[in-house]
Specification:
The complex is a heterodimer of chains A (167) and B (90). Chain A is mostly helical and 167 residues long. In chain A, 53% of the residues lie in helices and 7% in strands. Chain A is rod-shaped. Chain B is an alpha+beta fold and 90 residues long. In chain B, the strands form three sheets. Chain B has a two-stranded parallel sheet. In chain B, strands 3-4 form a two-stranded antiparallel ribbon. The mean pLDDT of chain B is 90. Classes of the chains: A mainly alpha (167), B alpha+beta (90). Chains A and B meet through helix 3 and strand 3 of A and strand 1, helix 1, strand 2, helix 2 and strand 3 of B.
């Protein structure tokens, strides 16, 4: 700016020039990167959660472990945090990136809690029918509405599978 | 045979969808689940039916439990190879 002249700065100009003056890493176009990082991070975290309860159930190793999904969710949160870091430095999209990081963090926390803690909360095994004992009898309805009992299978080995229901 | 507390019509849909040819039994009151010591109280806050802890029992021809598969984590289930190995040991 030359002395003696009046330079009227338009609002858009100011918004872009402030980051350029205060931060060596922010660029006027940095907003796109921030939003992209935040959105990708949130999406990855969400997909990590959703895929565990859907796709991962088809692969026993993935289902039993759950660790790859937790790691993926952590990656998503890391991206959100990177976005937030950039956002706060550039002072742009701070709310958006903070929101994405919070949501991602919640998703990660829930998945990690479920995989590493909640799914271990089972009653003590002491009361479960033990090997060497007689299998308790029952009479229950099958999928065709017929009453079935264990006695029907006397003389043959039987696998009795207790599951939590088909949801 | 499979047992869960879901109703018979749900089991019918599941059996058809998965092509299951063995009896899938409905235990909405948890009688069998309780008899085998598998009731998981408060498993789901809003569950209408008692939820079973996942388990597999192998019974021999005389109705005695010979082997049992029980996990410490409800996400882990018995795999076909493990069940076949149990059968081999019978």
């Amino acid at each position: 700016m030359q002395s003696g002249s009046i330079h009227i700065v338009a609002p858009e100009e100011r918004a872009d020039s402030i980051p350029a003056m205060t931060s060596p890493t922010a660029r006027p176009g940095g907003g796109k990167a921030i939003v992209f990082l935040a959105a990708s991070g949130a999406l990855i975290a969400f997909l990590a959660l959703a895929s565990y309860f859907t796709l991962a159930q088809r692969w026993p190793d993935l289902r039993d472990s759950g660790v790859p999904n937790v790691v993926a969710a952590a990656l998503g949160v890391a991206l959100c945090l990177a976005a937030a870091q950039r956002a706060f430095r550039a002072r742009r999209f701070r709310v958006t990136s903070a929101l994405a990081a919070s949501l991602g963090g919640l998703v990660f926390a829930f998945l990690a809690a479920y995989i590493f803690y909640i799914s271990y909360r089972l009653p003590p095994a002491g009361g479960v029918a033990a090997a060497g004992t007689k299998a308790p009898a029952f009479k229950l309805q099958d999928q065709e509405g017929r009453e079935r009992t264990l006695e029907e299978f006397q003389g043959r080995p039987v696998f009795l599978v207790f599951f939590r229901g088909h949801w | 045979m499979a047992v869960s507390s879901s109703p018979a019509d749900e089991h019918k849909r599941a059996a058809e969808k998965l092509g299951l040819r063995f009896p899938v039994l409905s235990d909405p009151e948890g009688k069998a689940i309780g008899a085998y010591g598998l009731v998981h109280p408060d498993a789901l806050p809003f569950a209408e039916f008692p939820i079973a802890r996942p388990a597999v029992f192998l019974l021999d021809g005389s109705g005695t439990i010979r082997e049992r598969f029980l996990t410490e984590n409800w996400r882990v289930r018995a795999r076909p190879e493990q069940l076949l190995a149990m059968l081999d040991r019978l």
